[in-house]
């Protein structure tokens, strides 16, 4: 049962008045088409719909009415909701969009969209926009698509129409080849709409995957992001989280307590700091909303609009052949002394500027975007100041993700190597370092962008191979004069190779020192790998910048020939 457009009541088994034949006319139907009438049932009372306003008398009046409704859609119909947002120290959805985009560049889509749900009082609450603002604009003059949850409307929770708006925007971004930025601050699925809301999330997830590696996808978390809502950010390329405000978890503290008996705060369960330091979900951590959106703009300035374009280049005032003499003092020649590899990156790149990803997670490896000679480059570097720069599970997964992201968006890779090996121990083995460490190996082998390896100091064992060695496809490999490429360090090698000889020696310590020196001289000289063609040249550290820029200039003409396949099977 239901009502027609004029409010007429339809009774079950009867056609609406508009469909009935005029009285006095007979309609002959074949006998087989006659459907017996069921007993009449009491008509269900439908909500009273307010009468439509009188039609406008002129185009001028019609235009004024549209402007009035647009004003209410933009500013909201509930001032108290805006006041609550302000009281939390948060910006509104449109204020966030204004900070993200170039001034006066935003073009909104579907500002008059309203949900169609009934029940639970929903028919009495039908605000324009349905809780999400969608549209497009520019960042540094380049087009982007953006959607922003509006927590003032249904707490920013997603419903059917809300999802349809996001679907439309994502389809538009894919077809036009522009980045998608999602500004998240909502309560998950709209409970009153049931499965329709869940299906809406499914449509977003499917589009996240379809756009993956096609256009850059950026998620910004300004507040709660719980349940199924967290999977969309997890599927995007970059996640920004605002300190003390962003919260992401599959099940909230109340559910955790009810099911497991564990009492934990929302911040300790899934706050921004947790995801930036322990889980790796948050790529960037920001102190406030304005700073966060400025960081998003900076990131977008380093990315192409889509996978068919090159990253944006700029004219650099930093000389290509600038002498990097400071590098001679940054890296100690002793293999067991630590230093901060970010000082190396700072000295090499244009004007010392770079953007580090996951700076607080898996800190024993550094992943950063920067420029060399005005062109965007991705850096992967072991970090000797943290765990001596060893590779472990988290470092391998962090670097693998970064390598695949750079490869997807045509960003050349420079790998700075100073690695003693993989982290040993049962904890790493039992946690799956074999399959999870293989992700980095897979990522490098699969990457078709220009790849250059620079061995700063030591490169031992399987970690040397994994850190983009020539044997797995690096286009060029350079080494500094202090490099040591070997299966393992000389001390450990001597203990294994000469174990019996040392046990029988009259002076084991003296004999051990002799054997270590012999092994070092034969296999750990700066020229051991160069003599075999595994290093293309041993370079003066001061020329590292110019060598890299000139090499990348050549490699931009690289034309890889790849086998036909549906897709590879990435290790778990």
Compact overview of the structure:
The chain has 21 helices and 19 strands. It is α/β, with parallel strands linked by helices.
Describe this structure in words.
The chain is of the alpha/beta class and 572 residues long. The strands form 4 sheets. Strands 12, 13, 14, 15, 16, 17, 18 and 19 form an 8-stranded mixed sheet that branches. Strands 3-4-5-6-7-9-11 form a 7-stranded mixed sheet, sandwiched between helices. 36% of the residues lie in helices and 16% in strands. α4 packs parallel to α5, α13 packs parallel to α15 and α17 (490-497) crosses α19 (508-523). It is built from 21 helices and 19 strands. The model is unreliable at 1-48 (pLDDT under 50). The protein is elongated. The longest helix is centred in the N-terminal third of the chain and has 17 residues, at 59-75. It has helices spanning 59-75, 79-87, 93-100, 160-176, 195-211, 231-235, 253-260, 266-270, 272-279, 289-300, 327-330, 341-348, 393-408, 426-430, 433-446, 461-466, 490-497, 499-504, 508-523, 528-531, 544-555, and strands at residues 2-3, 9-10, 107-109, 132-139, 142-149, 180-184, 217-221, 224-226, 238-242, 247-249, 284-286, 354-357, 365-372, 375-382, 413-419, 451-460, 476-479, 484-486, 537-538.
